[in-house]
Automatic annotation (TrEMBL):
Domain 6-phosphogluconate dehydrogenase NADP-binding residues, every copy: 4-152
Oxidoreductase as UniProt keyword: yes
Organism: Sinorhizobium meliloti CCNWSX0020
Residues in NADPH-dependent reductive aminase-like C-terminal domain copies: 159-286
Lineage: Bacteria, Pseudomonadati, Pseudomonadota, Alphaproteobacteria, Hyphomicrobiales
Official protein name in the record: 6-phosphogluconate dehydrogenase NAD-binding protein
């Protein structure tokens, strides 16, 4: 069993602390608003009076704050305690945020691992929770059994920005799914249908279309977008135009669909008629 300090006792930090306590670890907590720490003291956690005291108390310190400026503000209060300490930051941010914090911590002698939590608080410590890590592999290995108590763990590499990059990429997939679902639901309900009644049609369709992703991924990696194309992008551009026109006819804003139409159109206009939809990646990679 190891000793862990946790900074940030919002919904996620509290779930992390409770799971570690349940697994028999020694947990020290610190939160800007002290009253949020008190229920955890009842469950066996020690409350630190300052960030410095919390870092000194444990082999590993975990930060789970609202954003990077908050994480940095807390660490700045404990600069004298950082040298030689293991720090894991599970605060959500960008790859650049993680790399910048890693550089700042390295200059103060701390060892840094960044993490991206692919779970909501009730999932922590249970099946289906995943945390992506990047940064110090040595830190990850030293604390692997502690980390496994929180979620399945995957270390992606020494570049501190990778966990955040993959976290953001997974969230992008999720929001793509949500935006498609929301648009489809707006269309169906515009004609008096019910979103719940539409789901038995939508879910198998999404599952069937998910089956095309390995082929599209291979085309993205090889750049061979014109190989073995079943549904070319020129045809799909017309389907997207029809979606936009149908939405307008039904009084549904086509805001989710217009960007996809524009990007597919760009590829067609630059001579990619026969390509697969995977070729849209070439268009967006070039845009800053
Ligand atoms: N909750 C979720 O579903 C998601 C799942 C995926 C990962 N996220 C990320 O986890 C980070 C924390 O999220 P959270 O849900 O725990 O957030 P809150 O409940 O809002 O708690 C925020 C904590 O941050 C503290 N805090 C805010 N500003 C400051 C500051 N300037 N200095 C020090 N601490 C600060 C706040 O303290 P207090 O308001 O109680 O004093 C809370 O402890 C987040 O990155 C998610 O994206 C969660």
């Amino acid at each position: 069993m190891s000793s862990i300090s946790i900074f940030g006792l919002g919904a996620m930090g509290t779930a992390l602390a409770r799971t570690l306590l349940k697994n028999g670890h020694t947990v020290t907590v610190w939160n800007r608003t002290r009253s949020r720490a008190e229920p955890l003291a009842g469950a066996g956690a020690k409350i630190a009076e300052s960030p410095t005291e919390a870092i000194a108390a444990s082999e590993l310190t975990i930060l789970c704050l609202v954003d990077y400026p908050a994480a940095r503000a807390v660490l700045e209060q404990a600069q004298e305690a950082l040298a030689g300490r293991d720090l894991l930051n599970l605060t959500n941010g960008t790859p650049g945020d993680a790399r910048e914090l890693g550089t700042w911590l390295a200059a103060r002698g701390a060892i840094y691992l960044d993490g991206g939590i692919m779970a909501i608080p009730p999932m922590i410590g249970g099946a289906g929770a995943l945390i992506l890590y990047s940064g110090s592999r040595a830190l990850f290995d030293r604390h692997s059994s502690t980390l496994e108590a929180l979620a399945e763990s995957r270390h992606l590499g020494e570049d501190e920005g990778l966990a955040s990059l993959y976290d953001i990429a997974l969230l992008s997939g999720m929001y793509g799914l949500f935006s498609g679902f929301l648009h489809a639901s707006a269309l169906v309900t515009s004609a008096g249908g019910k979103a719940v009644d539409f789901l038995p049609l939508l879910l198998p369709w999404i599952e069937a279309m998910s089956g095309t992703l390995p082929d599209l991924a291979g085309k993205i990696d090889s750049g061979m977008h014109g190989r073995d194309v079943v549904s070319n992008i020129a045809m799909q551009k017309i389907a997207l135009e029809n979606i936009v026109r149908a939405s307008e006819e039904q009084g549904v804003a086509p805001d989710f669909m217009r960007p996809m139409l524009r990007l597919a159109g760009d590829r067609v206009d630059s001579g990619g008629h026969g390509d697969d939809i995977s070729a849209v990646v070439e268009v967006i990679r070039k845009r800053k």
